[in-house]
Design goal:
Elements lengths: L6 H10 L2 H6 L5 E2 L5 E3 L11 E4 L4 E4 L5 E2 L1 H8 L4 H12 L16 H19 L6 H9 L4 H7 L2 E3 L5 H8 L4 H6 L3 E4 L2 E4 L4 E7 L5 E8 L9 E3 L12 E2 L1 H11 L1 E5 L2 H10 L4 E4 L6 H11 L7 E5 L4 H14 L5 E5 L7 H8 L1 H7 L4 E2 H11 L6 H16 L6 H13 L3 H21 L27 H16 L5 H7 L7 H12 L8 H8 L5 H9 L7 H33 L5 H24 L1
Parallel strand pairs: 13-14, 13-15, 15-16
Antiparallel strand pairs: 1-2, 2-3, 3-4, 4-5, 6-9, 7-8, 9-10, 10-11, 12-14, 16-17
The structure holds zinc ion.
The site of zinc ion (ZN) has 8 residues, from loops.
Amino acid sequence: MAGRIRQSDVEEVKARTNIADIIGERVALKNAGVGAMKGLCPFHDERSPSFNVRPQAGFYHCFGCGESGDVYSFLTRMDHVSFTEAVERLAGRIGYTLHYEDGGAAPEHTGRTRLYAANTAAAQFFRAQLQTPEAEIARRFLGERGFDAGAAGHFGVGYAPKGWSAMHDALRSQGFTDEELTNAGLVSQGQRGVYDRFRGRVVWPIRDVTGQVIGFGARRLFDDDKGPKYLNTPETTVYKKAQVLYGLDLAKRDISRDHRVVVVEGYTDVMACHLAGITTAIATCGTAFGSDHITVLRRVMGDDSTAGEVVFTFDPDAAGQKAALRAFADAKRFNAQTYVATGPEGLDPCDLRLRRGDAAVRGLMETKVPMVEFVLDQRIAGFDLASVEGRVGALRAAAPVVAELRDALLQPEYVRVLARRLGMDTEDVRREVERAGRGASRRDERSPDAARDPEPPSGETLTRVTLASLPRTADATLERDALMGILQFGHRLDPSLVTRALSLPFRHPALDAVRRAVEESSDAQRPGWAVDAIGRIREPYRSLGAELLAADFPALDDAAAVASTADLARRLVIRGLDTEKNEMLGAIQRVPAASDEGRAIRLRLRELDAQRQQLVAEAG
Ligand code: ZN
């Protein structure tokens, strides 16, 4: 086993990696002030962004939950990889060859890295198998659904051979162990050893948001196959079905740009949509659309999603209706508007494209209705609206849906919509909705979901010193702003000015703790120094340091921020000079004017005045 990665390599890889690129693959970031970007925090659930990234400092910080760190700590926390894996992964991205302390040069192969590698190897194997004579049935399956070789290639679709060990043998010969293949969910354990999980099936590789293959979805092809129609990778350390969205790797960029996502039901629907030009289509993998999927999507859509839209396509059959109702229950967690689009004659996107072409698939989006309306119609559908009993029953069934709308403008609007649908008096409908709302809010208080939303984790956070808790005195404000500027732009200032500004104790104890840590990082010209400085601060002050590094420094642009920081640093020095001057003026009263001591004090006073004047002149 290879040893530790050489420290200089760790730093080099970090310096060459833009943290915004890495975080941006998982979280939609937008510019927020000078040298800063913002997005929804991936570490806690929130609706407005408090997750800040500073590419120049190589640093991120969440003002909501306090998570902060560099690109390595982001990967270890976000993807649950080890520190070594994080470094190896980033080195791999930029083609950098790492060196290991004990002379070893081979990367340390740890669990997750091997799972990704095994899945990638399996995807390549399945893809190659699609060309074999045995795979004729799979090619026909795809062809009948309108997918030629090019389409299959674009999505990496493959074929899993019927035998029990073809994939197993191929991956064993590439050096993967049975344990690794088992952990990757590629083989199952039988009485006489392991055997291929996917056999005689069309196979879709499922990738995470960064494009790494994490598992597979596979469809039955043979009549004698007694297995389920669709079979997926089981839960593994990299494949979590509650979070996985098929097509997200391809759709991510457009989802983030258009603030729109189209949720379809199957792999072939995703393919059909993308090929028809709806490049924001995704699907869940063998599970209903749930709240974890929303969390993943919200992160990709960004906080602008209030302007965005989520369009669900559901089969109008019973299963589709159930899926719609389930999605509606969760849809409140989107900031975006939610819609339902139903194809003509209930055709799903794949069949629609097959029978009516690409334009019809794009046209599907024009049939979309707000999800509330769709759900209202579902609720009403079973009642005979010609009878009084039917109308009252429909009202009782539909009122809770309208009651759940928290939007003050939407609710009265849908009261009117419902009244029109039922042919009832608006006032009667409004009363029933209110009644239903009172019942719902009592339920909410007891539901564990209600307490879960945006609150940051409490406990230790209570004792954390934060920016908001600092006093608004002139001294604390100067100390705060100067530290903020130096942490963010200090490497662009004259180092001697920074050293002078930080040489005197601050008056606020928490800010002074940050100052000491920053002062020790005297080599402020080195990239990433600020993150290291924060790392040296002890709690409960570390989060204050992190906030200072991440906060919006008020300035129009980079140059103005540097100038303003220099000014703040000078004011700190001037404050120190003034303090000393006051001490000297006190001391001079107590000593004879003609004494040596008196002369020394007068000399020092003149020096102080000269220094002060020079600083004031520099400040302009
Ligand atoms: Zn957070």
